[in-house]
Amino acid sequence: MSSLAARRRHPAALVIVLLFGLIVTGGLYAALAPKNADAATSSSSDIAAGKQLFLSNCATCHGVNATGGNEAPDLVGVGAAAVDFQVGTGRMPLAAPGIQAEADTNGPQFDNKQISQLAAYVASLGPGPGIPASDLTSGGGDIAKGGELFRVNCAMCHNFAGSGGALTRGKFAPSLMDVSGKHMYEAMETGPQSMPVFNNTNMSPTDKKDIISFLQNTKDEPNQGGANLGNLGPVPEGLFVWTIGIGLLIGAAVWLGRKAA
Amino acid sequence: MTTLNEDTSGRSADALRADDTTEAPTGNGGAIGGVANWVDERTGAAKGVRFLMKKVFPDHWSFMLGEIAMYSLIIVLITGTFLTFWFVPSMSESVYNGPYVPLRGITMSDAFKSTVDISLDVRGGLLIRQIHHWSALIFIVAIMLHMFRVFFTGAFRKPREINWIIGLVLSMLVLVEGFIGYSLPDDVLSGTGVRAAQGFMLSIPIVGSYIAYFLFGGGFPGTAIIPRFFTIHVLLLPAIIVGLFTAHIILVMVHKHTQYPGPGKTDKNVVGFPLMPVYTAKAGGFFFVVFGVTALIAGLVTIDPIWMYGPYEPTMITAGSQPDWFMGFADGALRLLPGFLEFTLLGHTWSFNVMLGAILLIPILWTLMGVYPFVESWVTGDKREHHVLDRPRNVPTRTGLGMAAIAFYAVLFGAAGNDIIAIKLHLSIDDITNTLRIMLVAAPVIVFWVTKRVCLSLQRKDRDLVLHGKETGRIVRTAEGRFFEAHEPLDEYERWRLVSFEAHRPIAAPAETDENGVRSKTASADRTRARLSQFFFNDRIEPVTPLELAAAHHDGQADEALAPLEAAALEDAHPGEFGGHLHGGAEEIEEHNAYAHQQGSDDDA
Amino acid sequence: MTTPSNPSDKESSVTHDSTSEAGDDRALVSLEHREGSDNLPERFQDPGLPAHIHRAGDSDEAAARRYERQVAALFAISMFATVLFVVSYFAVGNDTVVSLPIIGRTMALHVSLGVTLGMSLLCIGLGAIHWAKTLMPDTEVVEERHELRSPDEAREGAVKILADGLEGSQLKRRPLIKYTLGGALGLFAIPLGLQLVGSLGPLPHTDLETTLWDSKLPGGKPRRLMRDPDGTAIRLSDVTLGSVFHVLPEGIDATPDPNNEKLKAAVILISLQENLIKSARERKWGVDGVVAYSKICTHVGCPVGLYEQTTHHLLCPCHQSTFDLTEDCKVIFGPAKRALPQLKISVDDEGYLVADHGFDQPVGPSFWERA
């Protein structure tokens, strides 16, 4: 104990503690990080059950006929895709009014069956985009083409690696790294919140499939050159070099300049 | 005209030859000695070696900051040379068919393609590239910290003003060099940066568009910019940087290294360790430490993943488009400058919203830094050589000014990351920008004031330490049952460190008119100088003099440090005297009156 | 007060004298203390270097041997790491992936090369420094400094040589040489400068003011708006409310320098509810609420791609200039001054969107010639 206490002031102690802390934090994060819920699609539609769910959970804002309210949009014609995206990612029902609805890290408030019932009900109100077929949302497209499309249409908001980015007045484009292919497709098709619409007249289903394939590849791809620092560009690199990088070197310089025992 | 051959008396060459021996002096160091002898007979290098190897360097960690920069420069030169063997500085386009799937079939410039190949195809290529890039970042961090060290310790004073300016020029060139290096791979991020740089050039009045069209060989992007940047990056700027750096180092040798104040250290000596063997091992070893740490970082942390950014196209952009950190302050300035600074006048567009941040900021800041040593020496009237450094607290105004400049820089730097701050802290980017706009003006003022006050407080603490000694933690009880803490006086070595500085005093302006009523030609300059001098030195703490210490002893304060018994006896003799000093507490010194200290001591007595 | 180290330097001593003469009464130490303290010096004296403190290795041979072993061990680790580097270089596959804490899945070759190279170098450095600190002599050495100023005679000598040289050159006596030499030296760099500046690039002419939208297709037909990067034409009916199209002019790949054309001609096409549009011009230059604006920021030229469907704001990701699409893309935040220029569009016979004519003003960043 006393020898440990004596070494507490050793110059390497800080480095060791720092490294230990980083490893523990990283390990804990890897163990505890929320896993992506596997949302299976359900083809069964029970419009009546959906309507009941709607009336008890959504009608306060969106109105009993789903025609919208002061703050909430009209849902006639938004289609099943919009419901599946908004409810499936936990954005709706809205927990609290905020600058923008955020995906709920605890997952959606309804199970898959209830979501499909809600979607079926809203889809019955007017024609709109449906839930995409799984062959469009599970990869297998042209990754390189998807990357090019992503850089022209998406990277300005979501960043080159889908890490997310800032919009005006506190709004932001979320990270795409933990978003399922189906939800990405639905978001492109319906344009939730600030996001513009990339429906089939704008961007073909194949293009969307390519983009999803590119993002899934980006997520699965091993880091080519070590830790990626969140793929946020030069800012974290600058932070790293100003803290750990120069910190290690100054530590060595302090050791070098001190008289030996 | 007489020819030399006929003049036998002047045949010095013959005379010399007569004395000469045909046998070389025998070396006594084996094979190495033989080689050394061979070299010295042809170059006379031994004298230089003797001179160099005896050079003395003082030990201090902050003296290694410049070495980190120097070694990073060497690392960058080595790895940069490697990279040129694979990099193709061309904007000709072709289709990528390499192993990296997300880019296969995409049309890209050869510059980008060869960088992707270096990164993902050449074995160990990515390591070299990442060492190069990380090292460049560390290089500039080290330059900046080195510059801070030099500034805050007053190492720029006579005779080192020239080296300060060489250092400034180096640091500015390195920024340009770094920016160009970041631009070479022609990826989406760097292409955006080059595009912005072209926008900067366009903002220059009259010649802006000409400069841009000449440099780019036409409209942006053209096909000339990467090859031209490459020549500038690997030939022109490195040659200038290495040349200036050599001059920088030679001047360090000529001036001999500065040293921190301490016993035995004067302006007439340098105390430390000789180059041979200690600093050869320490500094040589430190090169390997810097290289090793850089290599470890490069092996473990990605930098500039251009294969993910993708090849540049003028229509593409990514969120979080930032330059490398060292250009962040200029980019931040561009984000903060309001749009109304652009206006039309006399039929032309004046884009101060761009020009101020992108074109003028760096020259203005560097000029201010360049003239500072001359301003300070003018204000102090101090024309002596200085080799003992200032402790930053002993020069509160300079330290305050330096910290204010850092605060200004830091606000600009933070502004360049406003979008990343917004998403990571869930703040509004508009609010951040507006806050930083206010802080850009307010922060330097506040930081200046706070730093100066902190420096003065630290100086007071030093005075207390000298006058009253260190707190020992020993509590002494007097006969009456009162308690006080025994203080131990500083030994003379420790004391010297705290009292050896000089406190400059404000200069009063000389009379504006002489006895004949003639107005002095320098009257207004003198007035300015007096005002500046007031600003610099009105608030100051003077070092303790032997007189003051003696007074403190006489008053019994320092005697607290004597053996408890003696102290107790003293307390008996002077009842009530310890009341004010039980905590080793300092007397309050009025801000406007540095001399109140002596007055205060008198009052205590 | 203080004695200047250089007594010949009058200025500093004068400075200090003048201070006390100026009647700064605060500077006067109280007389009481002066009395009886006459023998005390004005300032403390430098006590000189403190006694040398020996290290463990200086007297204790066992400690010295321990240090020797530590240094040797560090050098040995370095050699070992170097061998590992060579082994990794040849043995680790290009596609081998390894999972590491914090870093995650990463390429084994890169990490192993980096770590072994780093260890190989770092251990040499640590070993050498440890050696220097523990075993090499650590008695401090004092090197004397000398004033940098040359002695007067050397200065005079230098001045004399220069003066003699000038005299010997007869430059003063022969003004003809002086002036012609001055002229020649003053002008000799002009050819080199002229060649460089003259040949680097073309003059801008009207390049900054024009875009591909200004010209019609070879057949005289107006250019259609095409999707970037697909290059397909866009029908008015394709542009549904809230969607955004990144657009380039038809025929851009047939131009001599497509990248330069893209830079200037990139357009963003957005469908708004027509009643939201506040500017009559904007409504007129669009079709049923579908409007096209230059995508090039008027600040320094980044593509302004971020469209917020709900607020109808366009945001530039470089410096956060924000443009309001409902008000003719005027700047509502950030460093840009001018609104984004609008492209007048209409629908051709086949239902595709076309540009009627080019922008009515130069796109992109400001420049001097721009009125």
From TrEMBL, chain A:
Primary location group: membrane
Catalysed reaction equations from the record: a quinol + 2 Fe(III)-[cytochrome c](out) = a quinone + 2 Fe(II)-[cytochrome c](out) + 2 H(+)(out)
Membrane-spanning segments: 239-257
Coiled coil spans: none
Residues bound to heme c 2: 154, 157-158
Sites where the protein binds heme c 1: 58, 61-62
Residue ranges constituting the Cytochrome c domain according to the UniProt record: 45-126, 141-219
Keyword annotations from UniProtKB, A to Z: Cell membrane, Electron transport, Heme, Iron, Membrane, Metal-binding, Repeat, Respiratory chain, Translocase, Transmembrane, Transmembrane helix, Transport
Membrane topology: Multi-pass membrane protein
PTM field: Binds 2 heme c groups covalently per subunit.
Pfam families: Cytochrom_C, Cytochrome_CBB3
InterPro entries per the UniProt record, alphabetical: bc1_cytC-su, Cyt_c-like_dom, Cyt_c-like_dom_sf, Cytochrome_c_Oxidase_Subunit
Any Gene Ontology CC annotation: plasma membrane
Localization annotation: Cell membrane
GO molecular function: heme binding; iron ion binding; quinol-cytochrome-c reductase activity
EC number: 7.1.1.8
Superkingdom of this protein's organism: Bacteria
Subunit structure: The cytochrome bc1 complex is composed of a cytochrome b (QcrB), the Rieske iron-sulfur protein (QcrA) and a diheme cytochrome c (QcrC) subunit.
PANTHER family named among the record's database cross-references: CBB3-TYPE CYTOCHROME C OXIDASE SUBUNIT FIXP, CYTOCHROME BC1 COMPLEX CYTOCHROME C SUBUNIT
Name this protein carries in UniProt: Cytochrome bc1 complex cytochrome c subunit
Gene source species: Leekyejoonella antrihumi
Automatic annotation (TrEMBL), chain B:
Transmembrane segments: 68-88, 131-152, 164-184, 196-217, 229-254, 283-303, 352-375, 395-416, 436-455
Region (Disordered): 1-29, 574-605
Topology in the lipid bilayer: Multi-pass membrane protein
Top EC class for this record: translocase
Reactions catalysed: a quinol + 2 Fe(III)-[cytochrome c](out) = a quinone + 2 Fe(II)-[cytochrome c](out) + 2 H(+)(out)
Localization per record: Cell membrane
Entry-linked InterPro entries: Cyt_b/b6_N, Cytb/b6-like_sf, Di-haem_cyt_TM
Cofactor(s) needed by this chain: heme
Enzyme Commission code: 7.1.1.8
Residue ranges annotated for the Cytochrome b/b6 N-terminal region profile domain, each copy included: 35-261
GO-annotated biological processes: respiratory electron transport chain
Keywords: Cell membrane, Electron transport, Heme, Iron, Membrane, Metal-binding, Respiratory chain, Translocase, Transmembrane, Transmembrane helix, Transport
GO MF entries: metal ion binding; oxidoreductase activity; quinol-cytochrome-c reductase activity
Stretches with biased composition (Polar residues): 1-11
Main location class: membrane
Record GO cellular component, one term: plasma membrane
Lineage: superkingdom: Bacteria
The protein, known as: Cytochrome bc1 complex cytochrome b subunit
Organism, as annotated: Leekyejoonella antrihumi
TrEMBL record, chain C:
Coiled coil: none
SUPFAM superfamilies: ISP domain
Chain ranges passing through the membrane: 71-92, 107-129, 176-197
Sequence ranges of Basic and acidic residues compositional bias: 23-45
Record CDD domains: Rieske
Membrane topology: Multi-pass membrane protein
Every Rieske domain range: 285-354
GO cellular component, one term: plasma membrane
Stretches the record annotates as Disordered: 1-48
Record-linked InterPro entries: QcrA_N (IPR045603), Rieske_2Fe-2S (IPR017941), Rieske_2Fe-2S_sf (IPR036922), Rieske_Fe-S_prot (IPR014349)
Keyword field: 2Fe-2S, Cell membrane, Disulfide bond, Electron transport, Iron, Iron-sulfur, Membrane, Metal-binding, Oxidoreductase, Respiratory chain, Transmembrane, Transmembrane helix, Transport
GO molecular function: 2 iron, 2 sulfur cluster binding; metal ion binding; monooxygenase activity; oxidoreductase activity, acting on paired donors, with incorporation or reduction of molecular oxygen
Pfam families, sorted: QcrA_N, Rieske
Compartmental location: Cell membrane
Entry's family note: Belongs to the Rieske iron-sulfur protein family.
Function recorded in the entry: Iron-sulfur subunit of the cytochrome bc1 complex, an essential component of the respiratory electron transport chain required for ATP synthesis. The bc1 complex catalyzes the oxidation of menaquinol and the reduction of cytochrome c in the respiratory chain. The bc1 complex operates through a Q-cycle mechanism that couples electron transfer to generation of the proton gradient that drives ATP synthesis.
Protein name as annotated: Cytochrome bc1 complex Rieske iron-sulfur subunit
Organism from which the protein derives: Leekyejoonella antrihumi
